[in-house]
Amino acid sequence: MERDRVLAQVWAHVPTPGRPVLVAVDGADGAGKTRLAADLARVADRPVVVASLDDFHFPAAYRHAEGRTGRTVWARSFDYAAVRRELVDPWRSGAGTPYRRRWHDLATDQLVDAEPETVPERGVLVVEGVFAQRPELADAWDFAVYVDAPEDVRVSRMAVRDGVPHDPEHPDQRRYLEAQRIYRESCDPRESADLVVDNDDPDRPRIARVSPVLAHRAHNDQS
To answer: Which end of the chain has fewer CB atoms surrounding its CB within 10 Å, N or C?
Structure first.
């Protein structure tokens, strides 16, 4: 299966430093991050924990206090301090450290009182979500994958997934598209990622870019 072949190629680039590893699966809304993260866990040959930034939203009252625009999606969606405190930094502290993979339930808009889990020995944390390479999180990852797809494809997927209009100018689409434009202009996540997966056709994804550092390392390994 072509998808599994590409997943194996992704894993071949993920470092194995003999300690817990943190991997970001970044990309715009509708790019296919959630499925890619789940599939990476499915084919892995080591313990993998999958988490989502969607479980670290601010409460709706804060998210919507200044309106519902692309700018507020960018600035007020996620509680990055909670992401660091509850999930990322415990994993960076090493095996045996307690952590929580959920902090907020988007459907109920309530904080989640989850029992702590323990970072496994040589486990891999795969965190999927938009804006994963923002400055608040960029230094957390040992490896970052950017999942890419054309805007019209993503709009269509969001329409089906979320029950919103297919029109990219509709406010329910436009604010997320605009937030992604802000992200691209301020962080250039496609270029800063270690690896880019083009996911226009989810059954036939392809690795579109490998960072120069990884490409150089792969060349040396083959020499």
So the answer is: C
Task: For the chain, state the CA radius of gyration.
Answer: 17
pLDDT in tens, 29-61: 999 999 999 999 999 989 999 999 999 999 999
- Would you say 21 and 124 are in contact if contact means Cβ atoms under 8 Å apart? yes
Provide the number of structural domains found in the chain. Answer: 1
Instruction: Return the closest-CA partner of residue 199 out of 12, 46, 37.
Output: 37
pLDDT in tens, 75-128: 999 999 999 999 999 999 999 999 999 999 999 999 999 899 999 999 999 999
Distance (Å, whole) CA 117 – CA 115: 7
Q: Which two tokens mark 13?
A: 């680039």
Residue written as token pair 């436009």: 174
Q: Enter the tokens of residue 57.
A: 């939203």
pLDDT for residue 212 = 85
- Quote the pTM value: 0.94
Domain ranges, residue 82: 2-222
Distance from CA of residue 2 to its chain's centroid?
A: 22
d(CA 3, CA 121): 28
Q: Is 186 strand, coil or helix?
A: helix
Q: Are 49 and 90 in contact (CB under 8 A)?
A: no
Burial 67-92 (b: 16+ CB within 10 A, else e): eebbebbbebbbbbebbbebbbebbb
Contact 183, 75 (CB under 8 A): no
